């Protein structure tokens, strides 16, 4: 309530002297300073004692005039004040007392005593409470500053003194019940007042609606992870004791007391055995309240699965169907299994009720490698350890290649036989064959290829193959042919006839042969390092060269062989030529002698000459018929002279015709030498045929040339016809006609020529 200020009333008191006056302030408020002064009207009298009085009681006295002060006025300082003095006259020893008139001083209240109020009126624990300190300054001192402080049981609340008359307590509990008051004060002047003490009792609300709930990641309780059980109430104040219980046993699994409407109980590392039914209780002193039962299912993450591979045989082979089985020993169903080959997914299979799952795989050559599986039940996937599968693949037919240092293999080269099967499980054993004869073997422990080096000899030409074997079957490659070129060996030159000396006119066969060397072989023939000619041996072996001898042909002969891999020369063979010179003068002389001797048999000779002319005119068929009709039959000896014989220096061909057959004696041969006047040694297109005709007399050996007596003349004329073999020229028919006119040449003696003439 408000107290109104008292007015200081200064009024004279009856019976009092006006000679002495008490001076006092006109208005006084609590906390103000009060100064009282006692004054006299004249100074004739000497003052010996001064005293101040309130309501008849002496407050202070002194031996001289002085003031009386009250430092801070309070309401109790209100009252009636006066002063009294003792006077002495200076001339006369006379003393008397004077009293002032009384003055009424009323100390006015600066502000009334504060009143403490509580809001809400019914404080419920756990709720905020507002304390208010109510007072008001006097209107005459409204400019003064008030501050407030709240106390409980002698202890200041909050932050102490504050200019706010309110204090808000956020939460108050039953323990906060007690005696509260507030104080208000002004700084200038310093006036402090305290309210009456108030007893504040916090009202407690009983717990209600207790509930239990589970808090877990994704709403699932996973083995090994933490589980949080939350027990809460919708109402209840003060300290609440929460407890958690397992329904099966009724035992408490946790207990907490705190000022909260909800409390958590954390169960670390939940195990499968922690699954079951739970409830909680809450009590704040009004009796425990129980929640409903909560069922907790603990899900178990899958353990590391185990992968097993079942094959129809000990060693899996391409084409087999294998079973991949994956199984996790622990884990809540359903479980999804995934199968991998070298981290590449093959497929998946589900186990709705737990356990394992299988996956069938038909093997190909690419399926060798590492396999694994993965188990997942939504709580985290686990991968198995890697299981290797070695797949045996039968070898494919290998491919044989021959690597040689040059395009054409040569004897002495080292070639590499390279065999490789494109498919097949290692190790692979390769065998190499030459014409089905084993050459050797080589192993490829890691698969792939193998090689065999072979130093070539002449016998190594032929067909090669290789074989691959990895114990699942043998495969043979296709045949590969290898042709080995053998360099020619040193040739050997032989002469036929094999004599150290030969006679002029003989036809000498030079034969050159290299014992070794791949065909074709080209042979060259030399006389004193001068090339005579060459002959080829397309299929190998030796080759011959015929030479009609002259005296210039004496000397050293050799030959060379070449098949493109290097020429080789034979050793020198010496030949000595003996006998007559076969120049044209000798031919004419022998012809003349023949003519003289043949005159004795002119008639026979003429007939024979006519017959030969008939044969020449009738052509080759007539000549052949004539030869067949002669009795007892002619002995024919044909010799082919090479077309290039004209390049060889020597006498006119054919010189062998001058010698005649081996059965004739040399004197007879000298007599039968004909004259060849129409034979040109420089014509390369002529081929000469030599025909010997022997006539025998029947029944008489005396007709033999060897049995003629001395002085008996016997003529034996060789019937010799030289025919020119001409080259056909289809572009020049006139030339053919000219050649037909001169196609036959006869060895007609001089006597015959004379008869013709």
Describe the protein in words.
Strands 1, 5, 6, 8, 9 and 10 form a 6-stranded antiparallel sheet that branches. Strands 47, 49, 50, 52, 53 and 54 form a 6-stranded mixed sheet that branches. Strands 14, 15, 17, 18 and 19 form a 5-stranded antiparallel sheet that branches. Helix 2 (602-618) crosses helix 3 (620-629). This protein has 757 residues and is mainly beta.
Structural class: mainly beta
Mean pLDDT: 77
Count the beta strands.
56
Radius of gyration: 80 Å
Helix content, binned percent: under 10%
β-sheet strand percentage = 35-45%
Number of helices in the DSSP assignment: 7
Distance between the termini: 204 Å
Q: Could you write a compact summary of the structure shown?
A:
With 757 residues, the chain is mainly β.
Which helices and strands, and how do they pair?
Elements: E1 9-10, E2 20-23, E3 28-29, E4 34-40, E5 46-54, E6 57-62, E7 67-70, E8 79-88, E9 95-99, E10 103-105, E11 107-108, E12 115-119, E13 127-134, E14 146-152, E15 155-156, E16 166-172, E17 178-186, E18 191-194, E19 198-200, E20 211-215, E21 221-222, E22 227-232, E23 240-246, E24 252-258, E25 262-267, E26 276-283, E27 289-290, E28 294-296, E29 298-299, E30 306-310, E31 321-327, E32 335-341, E33 344-351, E34 356-362, E35 369-376, E36 382-383, E37 387-389, E38 399-403, E39 414-420, E40 428-434, E41 437-444, E42 449-455, E43 462-469, E44 474-476, E45 480-482, E46 492-496, E47 501-503, E48 507-513, E49 521-527, E50 530-537, E51 542-548, E52 555-562, E53 568-569, E54 573-578, H1 584-598, H2 602-618, H3 620-629, H4 656-659, H5 666-671, E55 721-723, H6 733-741, E56 744-746, H7 750-756
Parallel strand pairs: 3-11, 21-29, 47-54
Antiparallel strand pairs: 1-10, 2-4, 4-7, 5-6, 5-8, 8-9, 8-10, 12-13, 13-16, 14-15, 14-17, 17-18, 17-19, 20-22, 22-25, 23-24, 23-26, 26-27, 26-28, 30-31, 31-34, 32-33, 32-35, 35-36, 35-37, 38-39, 39-42, 40-41, 40-43, 43-44, 43-45, 46-48, 48-51, 49-50, 49-52, 52-53, 52-54, 55-56
